[in-house]
Amino acid sequence: MATLVRSEEMLRRDALAEPERLRAAYQAATPYPHLIIDDFLDGQFADQVHEEARLTAANKDASNGITQSLKVACTDWAAFGPQTHRLISYFNSDEFIARLGEIVGIADLFGDPELEGGGIHMTRRTGFLKMHTDFNWHDRLQADRRINILLYLNKDWQPAYRGELVLSDLELRDPVSVEPIFNRLVIFNTNDLTLHGHPDPLMFPDNYPRTSIAMYYYSHGKPEAERIRGRATTTRYLPRDKHDISLKQGSLKARLGYLARRFLRI
Fold it and tell me: What range does the domain containing 45 cover?
């Protein structure tokens, strides 16, 4: 989506300054390239997006009780508040995507105006999102998924709330936990090797769900080293251990498939 939306009065002035420094930090991060930018938005603008996002009616139930629970999402542009609309338009703009491409080292990135799988995400108390790698192919765009960004909108987050974003390799060695604090932007590679999620049940307040804005970026073609699956339009969940697996909900096929991946890692 090409747009003339500009970053003035939205971003903290130096949020994306020094792209070479940001790119070096991104590439040096483990277990795979990622970057954390705190206080990403201008404070007043961030407050407005926080309020709007939490009032937005979610239009898609993303839960199945096995790999995701108590999660809803909104990809409906007409439902976004005015400042949220401005921000998501900016995230899909040529200006932002060019800056993002400099940081991640991909020159031909583009966004998705229909926000497939993205938009506003909310997960309520005791909900979770198990460890997974993302769908790697977008049929409508005929494109490879390459980069995720997450903007967290959780004020006064406390460790007791849980809900940290966990980044890991496929063998779950030395995972990194990222606290989902207010106005924090996380950028990371997404491919068949980049396991991530917030797999433990949340303890957020009942009336204050874990909330974020998720945006995904694509290119035509990607390195073969990032592929395990062929073109896949579904998410691949990998259980960490037996405690990740509940056989009480969902279809038999889904439950057995998730159980098998604990041992086969496929």
Answer: 19-264
